Recover the amino acids of this structure.
């Protein structure tokens, strides 16, 4: 990573698992980072970075943190399935504050969306980015809302966004589902670089998955326009993980896996 953004980059959710990965990698590459999270930052600050604790629902503080930034990597908010009342503040109202900050600063948003926006599509299907949302819970619903808000701000205000529908971003895959959804930290980081540095992105959607050829559910997207392609793969784990399944018919039928089972009450698949 030799190219650097012309302006500082705001990274929300910096204290989370993926936020910490990105803070370290981008900081080491020389990016000027403004880091924020509702929780303290647990690591040593990267060179040239500063951290401030903030709540996404505090719109005034979010506006201040975004001052002078050319891009916002938005990884903040509730990152797992939770009751609606826990989702609505950080993931809906907080997202509005992010987009208002981006509108004021003419900044680009790279939004950590999720595969759970399409979790109730069946695994036998290969999806394109423009296929319908089928969220598998309130978390996935909030991410679909986030993509729609980003499109609104693109059409109405010219705020560019890259929506990254993150699969399973972990050090390595741990079950059969992740043979399709695995997204390595290195592929994630390279995508963030292209999402920020590409000259024009409009409102782009990219499936956040590595080059998992042994099993794949996600097809056409906007990655070519960003000049990005994944370099890693879960295929080497197929022999060990192919049989590691839940045995639950709902979980194994749909792309969203265990999130589809949470609170599920339809009798025909119960």
């Amino acid at each position: 990573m030799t190219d650097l953004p012309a302006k500082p980059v705001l990274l929300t959710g910096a204290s989370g698992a993926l936020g910490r990965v990105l803070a370290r990698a981008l900081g080491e590459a020389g990016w000027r980072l403004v880091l924020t999270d509702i929780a303290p930052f647990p690591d040593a600050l990267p060179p040239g970075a500063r951290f401030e604790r903030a709540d996404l629902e505090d719109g005034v503080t979010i506006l201040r943190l975004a001052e002078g930034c050319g891009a916002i990597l938005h990884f903040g908010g509730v990152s797992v399935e939770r009751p609606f009342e826990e989702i609505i503040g950080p993931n809906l109202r907080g997202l509005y504050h992010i987009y208002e900050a981006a509108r004021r600063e003419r900044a680009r948003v790279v939004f950590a969306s999720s595969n759970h926006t399409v979790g109730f599509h069946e695994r036998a299907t290969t999806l394109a980015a423009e296929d319908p949302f089928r969220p598998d819970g309130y978390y996935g619903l909030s991410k679909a809302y986030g993509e729609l808000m980003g499109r609104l701000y693109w059409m109405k205000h010219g705020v560019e966004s890259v929506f990254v529908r993150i699969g399973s971003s972990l050090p390595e895959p741990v079950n059969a589902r992740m043979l399709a959804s695995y997204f390595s930290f290195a592929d994630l980081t390279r995508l963030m670089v292209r999402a920020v540095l590409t000259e024009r992105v409009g409102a782009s959607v990219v499936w956040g998955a590595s080059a998992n050829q042994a099993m794949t559910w996600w097809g056409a997207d906007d990655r070519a326009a960003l000049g990005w392609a994944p370099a890693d793969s879960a295929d080497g784990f197929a022999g060990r993980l192919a049989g590691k399944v839940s045995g639950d018919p709902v979980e194994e039928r749909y792309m969203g896996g265990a999130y589809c089972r949470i609170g599920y009450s339809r009798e025909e698949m119960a």
Summary: Strands lie at 9-12, 33-37, 50-53, 71-74, 108-114, 161-166, 203-208. The mean pLDDT is 96. Residues 214 and 236 are 9 Å apart (CA to CA). The two ends are 48 Å apart (CA to CA).
